[in-house]
Design a protein that fits this description.
This protein is α+β, with helices and mostly antiparallel strands. Helix content is 39%, strand content 18%. Helix 2 packs antiparallel against helix 4 and helix 5 packs across helix 8.
Length: 358
């Protein structure tokens, strides 16, 4: 019996050593160590042998089984390394070849497209583009823009204040906050250069609102023009040119009285609806865009309040010598109106199905 075990072991080791691939090695394992193989069956019947043979036969069979298992493991590792080298050689990819299919190159986000379109209009009218810090002080965000100490926008429920030590003094000019509009850059720009000045101010702004038409962070473009003999008619002509460039050559604008702390007089600016005729849509129903009024509100504007110039008088802005106008619009609102987008939050959801449409 021991001689038979030795024969099985020698024959199995030779077959394992000669295995050329993983398939041949697996076949050898099944033949010599499988459930129906001769060596495992010998181990199962050791108890049937004479008592003086059991120990020697059992020991020889177990040693043979362990030796074959070790030989198979070594051969398996050897074949795996060899087969990996073969796969790496045969599967080599030329990374200099063009992709197939060609990947999408991507595109600018709709808000970026709209911002650049608006900037191009005003740059063409002679305005320069200026940007400023998003973390501002109460002085630049409120005080220098003629906001009264009791103005509701100063409340902590309406503005994100930056807490340095856990407390906030909303009346301290040096208290920091996330700007609620890009208007602070109007003061900074006037401090940096004397008149005349013609600038637009794009950027992110922050307010604690969140619904279908408001988000805590959004984008604005404001404009400032200061020179001698500037009138409300100059403002209207500038905004008419803007409206026609963005919404179509047939557009008209109208100014409605309003109030803003930093302009006097102040106006809301409407553009004639580009989705209907006199408030009636193509299907004969009331236009859903302008609500049947034939006008759409697009921005706020006005003549710069002389009180604002007092904060920069020492930089050449004497309210007795210069006049100016200012305006501000939400980039999201312009994009929503122009492209018929129903929910402001779609801009920030990063849904590829939405983004790929523009």
């Amino acid at each position: 019996m021991i001689d038979r075990i030795a024969q099985i072991r020698d024959r199995a080791e030779a077959q394992i050593s000669a295995a050329a691939d993983s398939g041949a090695l697996e076949a050898a394992r099944i033949e010599y160590l499988g459930r129906r193989a001769e060596l495992p069956n010998l181990l199962r019947h050791v108890a049937e042998l004479a008592p003086d043979q059991r120990a020697a036969v059992g020991k020889a069979a177990n040693e043979a089984r362990r030796a074959l298992e070790d030989a198979i493991a070594r051969k398996q590792a050897e074949l795996a390394a060899h087969e990996l080298e073969q796969r790496l050689a045969s599967d080599r990819v030329d990374v200099t070849l063009p992709a197939d299919p060609q990947p999408d190159l991507g595109r600018l986000h709709l808000l970026t497209q709209t911002r650049r379109e608006i900037e191009d209009v005003f740059v063409g009218l002679g305005f320069n583009v200026a940007e400023g810090p998003e973390v501002e002080t109460v002085y630049y965000n409120f005080d220098a823009l003629n906001h009264a100490p009791t103005h509701p926008s100063r409340l902590m429920s309406d503005t994100f204040y930056v807490k340095a030590d856990g407390t906030v003094d909303i009346f301290d000019p040096q208290t920091h906050l996330l700007r609620v509009h890009t208007s602070p850059m109007q003061i900074r720009a006037m401090e940096s250069q004397p008149p005349p000045i013609y600038i637009i101010l794009p950027g992110r702004v922050y307010r604690p609102d969140s619904d279908a038409t408001h988000t805590p962070q959004f984008h604005q473009i404001e404009g400032l023009a200061v020179d001698t003999d500037i009138t409300l008619a100059d403002l209207q002509g500038t905004l008419l040119t803007f409206a026609r460039a963005i919404f179509g050559e047939e557009r008209q604008v109208r100014l409605r009285p309003h109030f803003f702390p930093f302009t006097e007089p102040s106006v809301e600016v409407d553009v004639s609806c580009f989705n209907c005729t006199d408030g009636v849509a193509a299907d004969g129903r009331r236009c859903p865009l302008c609500k049947g009024t034939a006008w759409i509100e697009i921005l706020g504007a006005g003549m710069v309040d002389p009180n604002v110039f007092e904060y920069v008088r020492e930089h050449g802005y004497d309210p007795e010598q210069v006049q100016g106008f200012a305006f501000g619009m939400g980039i999201e609102r312009i994009a929503m109106l122009k492209h018929g987008i129903p929910d402001l939050r779609l801009f920030f959801d990063n849904d590829v199905r939405f983004l790929e449409q523009f």
